[in-house]
Write a structure and sequence with these properties.
About 30% of the residues lie in helices and about 40% in strands. It has about 140 residues and is an alpha+beta fold. The protein has one domain (about 20-125): Thrombin, subunit H (Beta Barrel), CATH 2.40.10. Strand 6 (about 80-90) and strand 7 form a beta hairpin. Helix 1 packs across helix 4. The two termini are about 20 Å apart.
């Protein structure tokens, strides 16, 4: 990814903050998301999850019912951190960061008794790296 100016980042955030990006195979490839390094962290534990979609203000992730995060949320812990990890093409190493979030809902995923869809709202502004990746993607999509 290139380096966006703070003015570009503010513009992306203002224009696209509420637009959900579904993480299809194409989006995963375009953004260089490293799926194996995406986690939800809560109360000292860290569990793998799959990002279903994300905006600049929240995300929807899929997790296993048998994972520890599901039981932590059921016990009332709604403060979690979502870990994103992207490959930086220039440096050939990952860029990883956590986004502080609050669980706003949880439903069975696609009729599967083993999976849940967890709705997250970010409690702080999204990191610049996420704003740049999603903003660039959305702008390219709109301009095409």
């Amino acid at each position: 990814m290139g380096y966006a100016t703070s003015q570009q980042l503010s513009r992306y955030y203002d224009l696209y903050q509420n637009i959900d990006v579904t993480f299809s195979k194409e989006v995963i490839k375009t953004t260089n998301l490293i799926m194996s390094q995406v986690y939800i962290k809560a109360l000292g534990g860290q569990w793998p999850c799959v990002i279903n979609s994300s905006s600049l203000v929240g995300a929807k992730v899929i997790a296993g019912v048998k994972s520890g995060v599901y039981s932590k949320i059921q016990q009332g812990n709604t403060s979690v951190n979502l870990r994103f990890s992207f490959l930086d093409q220039g440096k050939k190493e990952p860029i990883s960061f956590f986004v502080s979030s609050k669980v706003t809902g949880m439903n069975q995923y696609s009729g599967s008794p083993d999976l849940v869809l967890i709705n997250l709202s970010y409690t702080q502004r999204a990191p610049d790296d996420l704003i740049e990746r999603l903003g660039t993607l959305l702008e390219a999509n709109i301009n095409s």
